[in-house]
Amino acid sequence: MLITSEANPHIKYLKRLARRRFREEEEKFIIEGVRFVEEAVSCGWSLETVVYTPRVVQKDRGKRLLDSIAKLNIPTIEVTEAIFSNLSFTVTPQGVLAVVKAYKNNLTNLLQNKQNSLFVMIDGIQDPGNLGTIIRIADAAGAAGVILAKGTVDLYNPKTLRATMGSIFHLPVIMAGEAGEVAEGLLQNGVRLVVGIPQARLPVYHADLTGPVALVVGSEANGVSEKVKALAEYQINIPMPGRAESLNAAAAAAIMCYEAIRQRLSKKSSSDFRGNRRH
Predict the structure, then answer these.
(1) Backbone angles phi, psi at 13, to 5 degrees
(2) Fewest Cβ atoms nearer than 10 Å: which of 32, 101, 107, 225?
């Protein structure tokens, strides 16, 4: 049945999910777009409802998506273009969105298998695009998880989700407590802390980023919390011989992550070489 009224209870509920507090209470969030919904389905996430417009089934890709959703017995709601436009967070809506149940995890579970793991800790980032991009970078770098300290922008903000490009479904992203408490928890579990600070004297490539380590990225305005700085094994900078004053948080996170990858691959290559030498 096609829903044509904004007063429909389902539509009212979806509009309430646009608010962060209600999302947190319900432990649900909304994703939008054919590719995004496809990714959630392929990764086995729990979708509560899928909302679509008639034009979605007119395209082969949209029809295949709805067919796969039907096979999973996920409830669907068909709405008019006008209603969908009022629900959408994008400039050019594709006509499909889904309500997703949030992934529940905690720091203890995340650290159970930490051997040689790479983590990214976010300490107060406020820009949703930066947060989403860092999650995508961590995914690309093979990180074991992303840890969000209290005071960080909403993980399920639509702009954050879009910037992850589906990486939100590929690795654990957990919301933890105060930054200092999170840092202490990491140290107690044998995970070293490396914080990026523009004023630091040690270049990133001189820090040991192998083994269990958490790369800490601070807020755009205030950087990393003082307590986290004090607990860090390394305070590192990213050399900038050019004239730019700074890098944004996502760019800095990318450089730190890929230096960690370089060191780990180099260490593995050296180990493989020693193991294959003729005696």
Answers:
(1) -65, -45
(2) 101
The DSSP string of 61-72 is HHHHHHHHHHHT
Q: Are 134 and 120 in contact (CB under 8 A)?
A: yes
- Angle, in degrees to the nearest 10, between helices 60-71 and 34-42: 30
* Spatial CA neighbour of 133 closest among 222, 251, 261: 251
d(CA 193, CA 213): 6
Q: Tell me what pLDDT residue 272 has.
A: 58
158-191 pLDDT, tens per residue?
999 999 999 999 999 999 999 999 999 999 999 9
Nearest CA to 142 out of 118, 113, 166, 115 is that of 118
Distance, in Å, from the CA atom of 52 to the CA atom of 66, rounded to the nearest integer, reads 9
Which tokens sit at 99? Answer: 């309500």
**What is the spatial distance between Cα 202 and Cα 134, in angstroms, rounded to a whole number?**
23
> Which SS3 state, helix, strand or coil, does residue 37 take?
helix
The reply to whether the predicted model has a pTM over 0.70 is yes
- Report yes or no: 135 and 157 within 8 Å, Cβ to Cβ: no
Residues 6+ apart with CB under 8 A from 93: 32, 84, 85
Place of tokens 């004090």: 230
- CB 119 within 8 Å of CB 128: no
Q: Which residues contact 59 (CB under 8 A, 6 or more apart)?
A: none
Reduced to 3 states, what is the DSSP secondary structure of residue 126? Answer: coil
Q: Per-residue pLDDT tens for 63-89? A: 999 999 999 999 999 999 999 999 999
- The values of phi and psi at residue 219, to 5°, are -65, 155
pLDDT tens digits along 194-241: 999 988 999 999 999 999 999 999 998 889 999 999 999 999 999 999
